[in-house]
Write a structure and sequence with these properties.
20% of the residues lie in helices and 46% in strands. By secondary structure, it is α+β, with helices and mostly antiparallel strands. The chain has one domain. The model has no long low-confidence stretch (mean pLDDT 84).
Amino acid sequence: MNVDVTPDKVEKEDVYLHYAVGMHGGNSIVSSLLTLFANDIRIVEKCDNNGLVLHLSEIEQARKVLKYVEIKSISFGTDSILVDFKMKE
């Protein structure tokens, strides 16, 4: 099963993502798994229309960095993640 994830926007410490599954019925599988583990996985929240919210404040290493920087945008490359940020004043 292939899952493509693309970033939509960044708001404070949350990254909004959209996913598409390259298999018939795959979206239902991903949605069901996220619902099943919702209480255990607080980093990711399921939204409407194949949307996800990644709560960076729930990741200890990210929380440390977010004390000093504000994320402006995020994008995914073939084998990389590109983050545009600015220093907090």
